[in-house]
Amino acid sequence: MKVIKISTQNWSEGIAKLRNEYRLYAPVKKGTGSQIKELKPEENPDLSLKLSRFSPKSVVFPQSQIMFTYSLDENDKDYNLLKEVKVDSTPRVVIGLKPCDASSFGIVKRNYDNPDYQDSYWMDSYNSLTLVGCACDEPAATCFCLSVGGGPYNETGLDLLLITVEDGYLVKVITDKGKNLVKIAGWTEETDFDQFENRQKAAEEKITSEIQTDRLKELEVNDLFNAPIWEEMAFSCLNCGTCTYSCPTCWCFDIQDETRGKSGIRMRNWDSCMYPLFTLEGSGHNPRTEKLQRVRQRFMHKLKYYADKYDSGIQCVGCGRCINLCPVNIDIRVVCEKMNDYQTVNQ
User: Fold this and answer.
1) Whose CB among 53, 103, 112, 324 lies 3.0–4.6 Å from 156's, allowing a Cys bridge?
2) Which residue did the predictor score with more confidence, 204 or 2?
3) What is the pLDDT of residues 86-131, one digit of tens each?
4) How far is the C-alpha of 26 from the C-alpha of 6, rounded, in Å?
């Protein structure tokens, strides 16, 4: 295992060098919490911050993204033509994201890069990205990443893993992208670190929250769809969409045209299955007019449909954001328990 030691001074010098090669994204303080955003020239990553309020998915999948431009001016040579807006593929790096957020990109990638469909906007942006994670030594009470195949020191999706030590950081190099980044930053001092496993174990022992998903795959879709649990689960929901916007693995979007004068754009915007208009069809029919139907769709997709389709676990990394941010305290852990145990109730 190649581990590089970075002193506090070398860290600052390295960040300055990276600015010349990458667009830098990192956690910064915002109000009482933090957010991951593109750093201004005077800003530096703050790796002491807890899990950001919103995930870094917007680095690859912007909340609003222009896909095409068009002209309605008959005198324009591009009249009535859609012109694709290319993705900015400037190399970017996210520094200090948590391992759960890094693993979320792999889950989302199955939707945007598969034999049936490849989304060039998402893929071009993702391929230009380098992910530098920061080990999570103080997980929150709502974290349950261990239950979904992750962990505070999980390396899935990461190019580098940072470990905070008294006089700076240790960096575990995982991929060639990571190797190139430390070279550019000038972080070259290799060291031995024999406390890695102890640190990892100590962090994992602090995670007290868990979920069980062992029965979800074998349960019949229609049985779970028609289960009597959904009225209770949906009772307090406001359909505000906070859970979907904060979730690192939610990928739904809407496409809209906006025209001003004789020019316009076609853009995609984040959407949510919690919204009444999400499934409104051109005919005027809406198959999910009721709140219960929308809540059921969200959890069935996360915990059942995804698991059935990809056979790679559930569509959740256990970050706990939706638990912390839900204004009416709907808890995905409770919903998962109800779904996972429903088979037992029926027996």
Assistant:
1) 103
2) 204
3) 999 899 999 999 999 999 999 999 999 999 999 999 999 999 999 9
4) 18
What's CA 167's distance to the chain center, in Å? 30
Q: What is the DSSP string of 56-105?
A: GGGGTS-SEEEEEEEE--TTSTTBT--EE-------EEEEEE-HHHHHHH
Residue 334 and residue 276: Cα distance in Å, rounded? 24
Specify whether the CB–CB gap between 69 and 265 falls below 8 A. yes
Estimate the share of the chain in helix, then strand, then coil, as percent rounded to the nearest 5. 35, 20, 45
Which strand ranges, in their side-by-side order, compose the sheet holding 129-134? 33-38, 23-30, 92-97, 129-134, 160-165, 168-173, 3-7, 190-191
pLDDT of residue 346: 45
Q: CA-to-CA distance for 20 and 11, rounded, in angstroms?
A: 15
**Which token pair is 333?**
């852990």
Kindly report the number of other CB atoms within 10 A of residue 29's CB atom.
Answer: 11
Q: Tell me what the mean pLDDT of segment 168-196 comes to.
A: 92
Under DSSP, is residue 131 helix (H, G, I), strand (E, B) or coil? strand
Which amino acid does the sequence have at 27?
A: P
Residues near 60 by beta carbon (within 8 Å), at least 6 away in sequence: 105, 122, 125, 126, 129
* Dist. CA 53–CA 236, nearest whole Å: 22
Average pLDDT over the chain, rounded to an integer: 93
Do 208 and 320 touch, CB atoms closer than 8 A?
Answer: no
